[in-house]
């Protein structure tokens, strides 16, 4: 996948779109990696505290083990994701997936399968691709772990951007299912679920519930970025 993208698309900065190396020198100054003391569930920085979880995760009962975000969803990162998802900058998947894989390696996560959050048929037609699938396939290649298209969306879901945490949970409930014939493939397997942004955790949680219900041993979530604590 990476070689195909590099052949058809010139190298550009994944964060601003300028031709050249990624990230470019200007964007590199403004990129803030998530580091330090982080929530043991969603991975967001929680500062100098003895608590293991952020306020949001203390309220929730997430099915996944832990989220591994690379950045906050803001500034140049937000712009880069927009270019990737809505402007057809497929080459951004190369930079983004390398950073996501590095985060997984640093965390020492050993997994058997990588999968990704499914997109609806309507949104697939609009964009022409599933951005999470591109990220997952390249992460799988880097980590030498098979990437399997396990999940499907059923029914229609409203766009999430203007919905609250509770509304998102209600909207996505029952809208994810395991594709037929994959039950034996994931039985007792450690799964990495890939998505681009973690906002409230509603979608990642629903996907994780489906995987666990169908026999997965545990689910880790790899995302490029996470929103700040407004959830």
UniProtKB/TrEMBL annotation:
InterPro entries the UniProt entry points to: ComF/GntX_DNA_util-trans, DZR_2, PRTase-like, PRTase_dom
GO molecular function, one term: glycosyltransferase activity
CDD domains hit by this protein: PRTases_typeI
Domain Phosphoribosyltransferase residue range list: 171-224
Gene3D superfamilies: 3.40.50.2020
Domain Double zinc ribbon positions: 5-58
Keyword entries, A-Z: Glycosyltransferase, Transferase
Family as reported in the entry's similarity comment: Belongs to the ComF/GntX family.
Protein name as annotated: Phosphoribosyltransferase
